[in-house]
Structure formats: C-alpha cells, structure tokens
Specification:
One of its GO terms (molecular function) is DNA binding. InterPro entries: Lambda_DNA-bd_dom_sf. It comes from Megalodesulfovibrio gigas (strain ATCC 19364 / DSM 1382 / NCIMB 9332 / VKM B-1759). This protein is mainly alpha-helical. It contains seven helices and two strands; from the N terminus they run ααααββααα. It has helices spanning 9-19, 22-29, 33-40, 49-59, 73-79, 88-99, 104-109, and strands spanning 62-63, 70-71. A hairpin with a 6-residue loop joins β1 and β2 (70-71). α1 (9-19) crosses α2 (22-29), α1 crosses α4 (49-59) and α2 packs across α3 (33-40). The longest helix has 12 residues, at 88-99. The chain is elongated, with a radius of gyration of 17 Å.
Length: 113
C-alpha cells in the first residue's frame, strides 16, 4: 500500500527564500527571520514539524475545481470535513469536495492510485 506523495517542504522553503528573502518568507509565514534562516541552513535544532506545516500552508496551493481558485491544503481539508447544514451553497461545495481528487480524505481512500 503506497502512501500519498509527500511534498518536500524544505525544498519549497529554499525556493521561496531564493526567489525573495528570508525576511519576506518569514513575514509570509508569521515566524521569525532567524527561524527561516536556521531551517534553510540546516541548523534548526527544534522539531521542524510545526515549521513544515507552516511552509506547506503558506506556499502550496491546489486548484479547487468547484471554486475555480487556488486554496491551501488546510482550506481544502476543512471544506471536505463535516457536512454543513445551514447553507445550500456550502452544502453544494461540500458535495463537490466529496468527489474531488484533491480531497485529503479521498487520497486516503485510494492509496494505491
């Protein structure tokens, strides 16, 4: 059983820093410039899991077929969560998410794909 491919968050971070600056990337992520610099230079001593999540949340997007706009993986996962009952529009969006190939729950249902 193959897992969904993981994104190389450190390569994404390095690409973003190279395209702009540590300060700009840190500001976009809401972290210190020092933390970004330590990560890029391989000197970050704390557990990088939180930073990895921030990198992916900030710099990766998927094209939402329903909305027609790029959304973060976190936004995508939230839309696909519990069925909304208070808004017909939100319900239509949720139904579209249930069949969407970007839905994290769909990726876990068919790990061999």
């Amino acid at each position: 059983m193959a897992a969904a491919p993981e994104l190389d968050w450190l390569a994404i971070l390095k690409r973003e820093v190279a395209a702009s600056s540590c300060q700009a990337v840190a500001a976009a992520m809401g972290v210190s410039r020092t933390a970004v610099s330590l990560l890029v230079n391989g000197k970050y001593t704390a557990d990088p899991a939180r930073m990895a999540a921030k990198v992916l949340e900030t710099f990766t997007r998927v094209q939402c077929p329903h909305a027609g706009v790029p959304v973060s993986p976190q936004e995508c996962g939230q839309r696909a969560g519990a069925m909304p009952t208070g808004s017909p529009g939100a319900l239509r969006w949720w139904r579209a998410c249930q069949r969407c190939p970007h839905n994290p729950l769909q990726l876990n249902k068919n790990p061999a794909a």
